[in-house]
Amino acid sequence: SAPPPSSPARVRVVFGHLCTRFRHIGAVHTTPPLEMACFAKRRLRAILHGTGGGRRQLVSRTSSSAEKGRRTRLCLRATAGLSVGLASIHLCCWTDTGSPLGKAVGFGAQPALAFGKREVFAEAPVAPRRLSSSGTRLPQPEHATVMMNEINDKLIIVGDIHGCLEETKELLQKVNYDRSKMTLISVGDLVNKGPYSPEVISFFRQEGAFAVRGNHDDSCIQAARGVGKYKDSYPEKYNYVQKFSSEDLDWYENIPLTLCLPELDPPIVIVHAGLLPGVKLPDQLFKNLLKVRRVKRTNAGIMNYFLGFLGFKQQSEYTGYEKQEPSATLWAREFSNPVNGPQTAVMPGSEKPVHVFFGHDARTGLQREAHATGLDTGCCYGRQLTGALISIDREHRKWTSELVSVNAFEEHTIGNDKKKKKSK
User: Fold this and answer.
1) Which residue has the higher pLDDT, 145 or 129?
2) What residues are paired with 28 via a beta bridge?
């Protein structure tokens, strides 16, 4: 029989066709989306109004700790549109405490949540800091906001540095860099390939510079912290992580995934790789922020109908790709395509189209689109290091940009194209 109304009800409803299948998550239903949606509406109404039939089918008593062993609850918050209004539920799954998913949510006591007079359940994680899909800890905040009083009248946004400290200093000298008058910002990938990875990190920290995390930065953090793909050991090329000071590593691990300058007109967003068009920053996938180069339209309309019906965030109409993909286009070009309209949906709470500065795509090189500028010009491959010099009119919040480049001092690594030619 169903537990009395005063006891917490453990609800385990998992939408199999609407969420990812994790190995560590149990009891995943495979009910078709439409049937599951109708089922959810009926049963949620049953929980809120206390009707017994629905409760008996939804409520699952918690097994003893001896039976479950080292397992913990992962609580995901969702909203469902009900005929009586919007109500919040929690989707309770089971996950191994030793898994990345379990570590991501932390473990803690179980406070009570109530809808009206009826308690449902809640699991408050002790450690709110989550893990990325690669196993590294996500920075706090993930998407940082930089206000006007935190920056100077001039900004220098530098492309992928990859350990090329000498070229970086040459570029800063060329723009007459003075930290009291100019703010230094990196689009990520500060390390690897070049000779001075630890020195670049130390330089940026000591200069009070801003930066965002790139894919090479994330791999470096995995090696330094012994997590993810390098939890057991790391390649010889990462031996330089032993030179990191604790201050440098802490600063490095906490640089955000994106930087937003919302007070400028147009607002500026800085990300390492790119964004899917029409998707708000908090909903962008971690892997796309660090790796996406191209996008392709998908048939997400039908799925979005069901997701919107249930109150979940809707999927993007695009799929992101890091490598070449037939019929896929550069994300910056699609992002700036006037057919898609101005990109007002990217920054939450802002109705203004944004301009994005990014890196990551050395093969394509310099990209200049209406709403995006790509700054990776392959310095580590013996080409150039490029930066965008931003001049701000504080009275009107307008800004202008000028591209500045310096030649690489030498070729520090061999690009993929040359590797293929040599192999032939």
Assistant:
1) 145
2) none
